[in-house]
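Methods — Computational structure assignment.
A single polypeptide chain was analysed. Its primary sequence is given first, followed by the predicted tertiary structure written as structure tokens.
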Amino acid sequence: MGNCRVLVLVGSLRKASYSRMLARALERLAPASLEFEYADIGHLPHYNQDIEDSGDLPESWVQFRQQVRSAGALLFVTPEYNRSIPGVLKNAIDIASRPKEENAWSGKPGAVVSISRGSLGGFGANHHLRQALTAVNVPVMAHPEAYIGNIATLFDEQGNLANESTAKFLSQFMRAFAQWVEKNR
């Protein structure tokens, strides 16, 4: 079926975030059939139904919705904030899901990778995100699941993934994701 453009949504806005470093590592480990584009969700105004109803939509909403619509697949890489996902990521999901009849997420195959500085690997964020994605009709890859704990210990000073066992696991994850995308797009 050819190459697929994967839209990557990173839940952290910090320039040197571990989520962003991990997303770049996933891109490097991915099969050549996947091409990556990164969504900039930090500039999106908060979703407000009154703005939607006015018809005078922020240009950033319009562009983001089009970016999601034109993607062939979705990859979410997120930290865990207070046992859930960052508000900026939930806001992005809400923006592209409205109006309901024009849900830009619908039917696009996706995968979730969650991270944390602790040992649980963002388990709460992973499952909260999966729940939100189910509501907007994103078929999310069920296995393998990716909860990456102790994230601060996995990169070298240049921001490259330095843990071999994690790199091996993530390589397998990305191969499975490529198969999931091929099967579901």
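Note: The radius of gyration is 16 Å.
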